[in-house]
Write a structure and sequence with these properties.
heterodimer, A: 368 residues, alpha/beta, Rossmann fold, 2 domains, globular, B: 671 residues, mainly alpha, MetI-like fold, 28 helices, 77% helix
Chain lengths: 368, 671
């Protein structure tokens, strides 16, 4: 990871809610379980010693259940919530040390946020909602309206400029929220459970919209979500958060393919692994003794196991895996694929045994 | 912001049951606190016994304890009268302020004169059309024509002028204060108790000190009005700004809005509706004081009512009273229309529609100008043409006489005989005995009794406060007069509760009842306190019963409203759950709905008691006796000492009532 391309860098962030929460940072109390800490001090650790970097153009998804601290984390990036300790560098600016004016400048130009409940301004027309950031910067009305026109076209809402938010459907409202965030042309986009409040179909539509925009705009994105499918779909990297700390940070494949602990495993166990893991993940790396399979039985290393399955199951013989340059990097047979799909952590808990029972059935389903 | 309230254990994987966390040993004090108010009550009963043995069973408050506070007030009043021109505070502050306020009223009156009567009507019609609809406009025309036709145009206009100045001042002072309080916790903490006090006190209580400081006339009237009427706009501005969802504020902040930008572009526009509702309340409260302020010589619509009440000419009082009600309704309709307009979700207008709207607005404004010109040509600046006026006192009087013979005089009605009998019965058999009991109880019973009540409701500080209040009333020499007021308050309150809460439940059960009551309650709530005295005198004559009856009618509305509202706000899923178990309607009411609506019902009782007190005081004007009558006497005969002491006793009584009807009961709401 080149340092110059790091757009967001957080080091040892702490946030403790509750009476005198900030004084607890670094004390042994923070080692207590959440219930004990609450009982003893009335405090709750929302962010526990979290460090991470996000590279330019990367989509970094923070994943966790409600109450895991992810919303606090994303808010602390622009100090909508003040952290108790730690460093935050955002586009080269030190956010924690910034004074009021510097912070305002960062918020005006560098970062924008898309909110869970859309948080549109109900008293403003769509055009003035989208233009809000520009208006705050002091841009002339004519200029900002021209820019808004363009953005509404981008998000597919041309013709709704004069409407009020309450006249739009949820999906359309969030498109306004997206346009509003994009209007100031920020370097970093923050999504706080942005699509959680939408219907599943609309949600998927909005996710595709984000993917489409990201292909064009290459923003740095931090995306908070409690929906694993969404995280896997959008994220270049995913951080699994629990009780304020990152349990695991990795690519979708890493998180699903080798969950670091039971929590992550339980979290990801309903994911259709064949749709996430690639041939590269399941293959055995090439050795000198390996015989290259025939050309008819070659797959790309980035192919999802799901697409490789028919070929692998055709016969007992292995298939070859090649990289982008066409070089053979490894081989893959039936056992490798099934092992990858049926992965279980070694020390299975009782509740995980049920997964073992369910597992093969699901695989059979996939085979048919 | 996600504030975690519960430890987050989404997936229990193989987790050994953890030992329960160690509990801290409660301290001795905490153990005592767990016993509830019982130890405190024991202490209070013991103290009462000690006090009782020490002073013996005296009737009422021991006379030798009464301080010469009335005399001190008298000498203070004398000092003020003497130094009114010389002392710097008067010469450099109060006197200039007073004359400036007087000038303001004159400017507004001149402006209304300049508009001429067609112009004024056109202006109101135009406002109705701009913010409301033609129905409001038609009502405005009828109501204002009434002012002119019954010959009260000039006094109506002076009431309007007084109102305009008072309301403007209240708004100019109130909105910035509300913003400041919303922005700054310390300002809020400083303002809140002051607002509580200002809203609690009947305006009547401070008429006497205001006359002392500003002498009689318009300036004092405006000061009294502003003091009484400003709190709602401050409160609702604060509320409006606070109620902007935190997500919306956060969105604003996330784009780097400065504090001013956030206020101007997000918070104020979103708080506009509550602010206008606040202004509406200001207007209503201002009107109720402006008419009472006739007592201190402000003129306006209150004057004819007062004069007529003095000679018990109910017909004249009635016509002027109707004018006051019309004035209240005009202003209420227009401002409410404005508030509703803001509340309505706006719709996008096409360019053509916008154009047409602008044309309409232009035409309406042009209409006002034309009306002013026509008015000037026709009648010159000034009032309604006298030739047009009709006297309705004659027919009204004969109607009232008819009513009196058929309702008031004894044996005119079956069973009760007549309202005069009812009045006599209530006065002789209920109010007088109650007054005697309240006045003759040995002082320590009421003092420690309220203390005990205070302890149960709000803890030790509350207990000390209310007990000190009752003692202070005794020291001020107002013990027996307070007993008269208290008896009336108790009877009126019981009537309100007994009638109001069942009505509220009925309105909750049957939408038809709700629809029927709503307009009646609307009218009851817009009428100034003063107006209620008129019909009451007709039916119950002057005296104690008049006070009780007026208070009952005046304070009924909030009892019904808040009960209904509280029940309607009970969460639907709770009611559904209750129904799912097969509760009968009564079971549902007693076991689910009423307990859930308790805070609202207790608030209803609080508001009812405060309104009852205010009206009982005002009823001093029609011989209600007690503290209200003392204030009238103080004003009319320049007995400032008596008036001030009575005002003080009213204030204390208000505080005690208020403190005894809110606290733990109100706050504690099952989650």
């Amino acid at each position: 990871m080149e340092n110059t391309s790091v757009q967001i860098s957080c080091k040892n962030l702490w946030k403790i809610f509750g009476p005198k929460g900030s004084t607890l940072v670094g004390t042994p109390e923070t080692e207590l379980s959440p219930a004990e800490l609450q009982e003893k001090t009335g405090c709750v650790v929302a962010i526990r010693d979290v460090s991470f970097d996000v590279r330019r153009g990367e989509v970094f998804v923070v994943m966790g259940l409600s109450g895991s601290g992810k919303s606090t984390l994303i808010r602390s990036l622009t100090r909508l919530v003040e952290v108790d300790s730690g460093e935050i560098t955002l586009c080269g600016s030190d956010v924690v040390k910034a004074d009021k004016n510097q912070l305002r400048e960062i918020r005006r130009h560098k970062v924008s946020m898309v909110f869970q409940q859309f948080s549109l301004f109900p008293h403003r027309r769509v055009v003035d909602n989208v233009a809000y950031g520009l208006e705050i910067q002091g841009m002339k009305k004519k200029e900002r309206y021209a820019r808004v026109d363009e953005l509404l076209r981008v998000v597919g809402l041309s013709g709704f400029a004069q409407s009020y938010p309450s006249e739009l459907s949820g999906g359309m409202q969030q498109r306004v929220g997206l346009a509003r965030a994009l209007a100031v042309d920020p370097e970093v986009l923050l999504f706080d459970e942005a699509f959680s409040a939408l219907d599943p179909l609309i949600r998927r539509e909005m996710q595709d919209e984000v993917i489409r925009l990201q292909e064009r705009l290459h923003k740095t994105v931090v995306f908070v979500s409690h929906d694993l499918d969404e995280a896997l779909k959008l994220g270049d990297r995913i951080a699994i958060m629990r009780n304020g700390s990152f349990v695991q940070v990795g690519t979708p494949e890493e998180v699903v393919g080798s969950p670091k602990d039971e929590y992550v495993a339980a979290f990801t166990r309903d994911v259709s692994r064949a749709k996430v893991l690639t041939a590269r993940w399941a293959m055995r790396a090439r050795t000198s003794t390996m015989v290259a399979p025939p050309d008819s039985r070659i797959v790309s290393e980035s192919a999802l196991l799901q697409s490789v399955l028919p070929l692998v199951l055709e016969s007992d013989a292995p298939v070859g895996v090649i990289d982008a340059g066409g070089t053979l990097v490894g081989i893959l047979d039936r056992k490798d694929v099934l092992a990858a799909i049926n992965y279980e952590p070694a020390e299975s808990a009782i509740s995980l045994n049920s997964t073992l029972v369910e597992g093969p059935q699901r695989t059979e389903g996939a085979l048919q | 912001m996600t504030v975690v309230t519960e430890p987050d254990r989404p997936i229990e994987l193989n987790e050994a049951p953890t030992a329960p966390p160690e509990r801290y040993q409660p301290s001795a004090l905490a153990k005592l606190a767990k016993l509830g108010p019982w130890p405190g009550l024991v202490v209070i009963v013991l103290a009462a016994l000690v006090a009782g043995v020490a002073t013996g069973i005296t009737a009422g408050f021991p006379a030798h304890w009464v301080t010469g506070i009335q005399n001190s007030f008298d000498s203070l009043a004398n000092w003020i009268t003497v130094h009114q021109t010389s002392a710097p505070f008067f010469a450099h502050f109060l006197t200039p302020l007073g004359s400036w306020l007087g000038d303001c009223v004159i400017w507004v009156s001149d402006f209304l004169n300049f508009l001429t009567w067609p112009g004024v009507i056109a202006l109101f019609v135009a406002s109705s059309l701009l913010v409301g609809n033609w129905r409001v406009a038609i009502f405005v025309v009828i109501a204002m024509a009434y002012f002119g036709l019954i010959g009260l145009w000039t006094v109506s206009m002076s009431t309007l002028a007084l109102m305009s100045v008072s309301v403007m001042i209240a708004i100019v002072v109130g909105i910035p204060l509300g913003i400041a309080a919303a922005a700054n916790r310390f300002v809020e903490q400083a303002i809140r108790p002051v607002l509580d006090l200002m809203q609690m006190l009947p305006a009547y209580a401070y008429l006497v000190p205001i006359v002392l400081l500003f002498s009689i006339g318009n300036p004092g009237g405006i000061v009294a009005t502003v003091i009484y009427a400003t709190p709602p706009v401050i409160r609702l501005t604060m509320l409006g700004i606070h109620s902007v969802p935190s997500e919306t504020i956060e969105a604003g902040k996330s784009f780097g809005s400065s504090r001013m930008q956030l206020l101007r572009k997000v918070q104020l526009p979103l708080a506009l509706r509550p602010i206008i509702v606040g202004i509406n309340q200001v207007i209503m409260m201002a009107l109720s004081v402006v008419v009472v302020a006739s007592l201190i010589g402000t003129g306006g619509l209150g004057d004819p009512v007062l004069q007529a009440l003095n000679i018990v000419d109910v017909g004249d009082a009635f016509t002027a009273g109707v004018a006051i009600v019309f004035m209240a309704m005009i202003l209420d309709r227009i401002v409410s229309a404005a508030a509703n307009r803001i509340g309505r979700p706006s719709r996008a207008l096409s360019l053509e529609q916008q154009h047409r709207k602008r044309l309409q607005q232009g035409a309406i404004l042009a209409g006002v100008v034309v009306a002013v010109i026509i008015g000037t040509i026709l009648s010159g600046p000034g009032g309604f043409p006298p030739g047009w006026s009709i006297s309705i006192s004659g027919p009204v009087n004969s109607l009232l006489t008819w009513l009196q013979t058929h309702l008031y005089h004894y044996s005119s009605l079956p069973i009760i005989g007549g309202t005069s009998n009812l009045s006599a019965f209530t006065t002789l058999e209920i109010l007088n005995p109650l007054t005697r009991i309240a006045g003759n109880l040995p002082w320590w019973i009421p003092v420690f009794g309220t203390a005990a009540l205070g302890l149960v409701i709000g803890g030790w500080r509350r207990a000390l406060l209310v007990a000190a209040g009752v003692m202070a009333i005794g020291y001020s020499g107002m013990w027996s007069d307070s007993a008269i007021t208290l008896a009336q308050v108790i009877v009126a309150l019981i009537m309100c509760v007994v009638v109001g809460i069942p009505l509220g439940i009925a309105a909750y059960w049957w939408d038809g009842v709700d629809r029927l009551l709503r307009p009646i309650l609307d009218v009851l709530q817009t009428m100034p306190a003063f107006v209620y005295l008129i019909p009451v005198v007709l039916f119950f004559g002057v005296g104690n019963m008049a006070g009780v009856a007026a208070s009952f009618v005046y304070a009924l509305a909030p009892a019904v409203r808040l009960t209904n509202l509280g029940l309607r706000q009970v969460r639907r899923d709770m009611v559904e759950a209750g129904n799912a178990f097969g509760s009968t309607r009564m079971q549902l009411l007693w076991k689910v709905e009423l307990p859930a609506a308790r805070p609202s019902i207790i608030l209803a009782i609080n508001q009812t008691i405060m309104l009852v007190l205010a009206e009982v005081i005002v009823a001093g004007l029609v011989g209600g006796g007690g503290l209200g009558y003392d204030v009238v006497v103080g004003l009319e005969r320049d007995e400032f000492g008596l008036g001030l002491a009575a005002g003080l006793a009213i204030v204390i009584m208000g505080v005690v009532f208020d403190r005894l009807t809110q606290g733990r009961f109100v706050r504690r709401l099952p989650a």
